[in-house]
Amino acid sequence: SAMREDRIKKTKTVCTYCGVGCSFDVWTKDREILKVEPQIDAPANGISTCVKGKFGWDYVNSEERLTKPLIREGDSFREAEWEEAFNLITSKFLGIKKTHGPDSMAFISSSKCTNEESYLMQKLARGVIGTNNVDNCSRYCQTPATVGLFRTVGYGGDSGSITDIEQSELVLVVGSNTSESHPVLATRVKRSHKLKGQKLIVADLRKHEMADRADIFIQPKSGTDIVWLSAITKYIVDQGWEDKTFLKNRVNGLQEYINSLATYTLEYAADVTGIPKEVLIQMAESIHKAETVCVLWAMGVTQHVGGSDTSTAISNLLLITGNYGKPGAGSYPLRGHNNVQGASDFGSMPDRFPGYEKITDDQVRAKYEKSWGVKIPAEPGLNNHDMVSGIHEGKVKAMYLKGEDMGLVDSNINYVHEAFEKLDFFVVQDIFFSKTAQFADVVLPASPSLEKEGTFTNTERRIQRLYQALEPLGESKPDWQIIMEIANRLGADWDYAHPGDIMDEAASLSPLYAGVSYERLEGYKSLQWPVAKDGVDSPLLFLDEFPFPDGKARLYPVEWTEPLQFDKEYDLHVNNGRLLEHFHEGNMTYKSEGITSKTPSVFLEVSPELAAERGLENGTLVRLTSPYGSVKVECHITDRVRGKEVYLPMNDPDEGAINYLTSSHADKDTDTPAYKEISAKMEILKVK
Ligand code: SF4
């Protein structure tokens, strides 16, 4: 019947599960998700999706969705009306600001939320409260990659498009489990490798699917990537294979950089990394022979004490070999969450305005002060790592956090939980009652992507629109509306009628988005930043120049920082990462039956050698204990891992949560936690 037809609706949306940014139509009948239908026009994926994008949407109708604000009463929570929740937040925020100053407050935005929502969160912090204490979870994953690229080439994003990776002659993958973490992108690499003779080199601790397919696969010792990268670069220079024309015309700092490579001989690298000299030479030769090289990297590189430096070394290698500014070449830090790129792009960072303009730049600050009618502090604020210690030290008293489960995903979470308990006032805004929400004073129910409009930016800097498929569930509201209501009650006069208005404001202030508008992003249209005023975007960066005053890139010398050392009793190195079926810490996918029926729980991968030595079988329950905490988990024996290397997927929201084990040690340049540098000891609890 006509009635029935009306209830069936097709809406274009963007996947929320990873940085590839697949877009597709979602068919709904009332609140029921009928199917996901990819379209050939979709720029990142065409007609492909992976299991998460295809089946991972029923969480929006989960019984566990928050549908009303909650207010703490003693050890429990009671439901409240929005009015009461807003009034409480307003009076507490104003009181704390008055007594302790604006810098006693901290704001956490989310890479699950839209660009517009991240823009508003930093505007609330800077423009209404008057602090630069605002950050987002890219601090936990990709900020080191951004820093490595800022240092060398000036823009912190993928230098080309996903389709460029496809046409590359050689793809080098470092510390990325691409086929499970970025499935649709990995499919393109697999296809080029199989059909077009693309060469594939993979470096990882774990022998995952990409490793199985690689022409060369190396398993360097944990935390030593910078050493073999630098040794290969040095060998290339020693052979006279560097791209002399490119270096002469487009790059600064060559001699100083070459001098800095002196220690990185093949012998030294073989000794430190465990990779034989012949294999290092073979890799250097392959890179030299390829006309175009792309490097893909992820958390295996960034989540170390030297994460920024290793990212820098990758970019140095690309510069030395002239692999920037041409199709099929360049740097591809693979962004994890759907909007990791956008959350930072739109200014939810303590030291940057939207479009990465610096807080410390007087002219930039003056521009925002004029537009927002406020005074903005000239000093960068606290990042999320420093916020936690700031709370412990009594400097930070209140926090407003949206869409992040910091109490699960930050490292050393016992320490983070103690901090949350010390806060005078804590507002958590999410679609579910997260681990973090347990520590809140007020919990606000937000609406997920299918229930609102906005834009996401994928790993290739591509901005795409999502349209509203469903009404907000219960009394939940889109994050941008909640932030606007709070801002206005604190004295602002924001009047955004639609997220498109927020984008217009960002475009008017930030040169990176000068030509971005919702009109230009209609339907499956998209734009890759920087976008000039006339709407011309940038699928491939650095064609003519690098964004530095003289237009030249910079080679940036870096040194190896030894990974953390633990007492001998902690004899197992605990690697960690994603599983194909689950999304990060699992707080959305665990609410999706389409997903949990396939991969119900987490397990610890142990090597056959370790299993034999300790008498472990598939299903043996063990406790792992690090100096910071412990987890309980069942074993799964596999030759994907070797010797005393174990692998714990990061998806367990409960007793198996990896961050009970991890430390507060971090990348020295960005404070990104060194998640990948942790050791533990094992006890057997129960044999199956
Ligand atoms: Fe979603 Fe990533 Fe899968 Fe694409 S590859 S459908 S963006 S999870």
UniProtKB/TrEMBL annotation:
Keywords: 2Fe-2S, 4Fe-4S, Iron, Iron-sulfur, Metal-binding, Molybdenum, Oxidoreductase, Repeat
Domain 4Fe-4S Mo/W bis-MGD-type: 8-64
Cofactor(s) in the UniProt record: [4Fe-4S] cluster; Mo-bis(molybdopterin guanine dinucleotide); [2Fe-2S] cluster
Similarity annotation: In the C-terminal section; belongs to the prokaryotic molybdopterin-containing oxidoreductase family.
Annotated Gene Ontology cellular component terms: membrane
Organism: Domibacillus epiphyticus
Name of the protein described by the UniProt record: Formate dehydrogenase subunit alpha
Molecular function as annotated in GO: 2 iron, 2 sulfur cluster binding; 4 iron, 4 sulfur cluster binding; formate dehydrogenase (NAD+) activity; metal ion binding; molybdopterin cofactor binding; NADH dehydrogenase activity
Domain of life: Bacteria
GO BP annotations, alphabetical order: formate metabolic process; respiratory electron transport chain
Residues of the whole record sequence present: 251 to 938 of 985
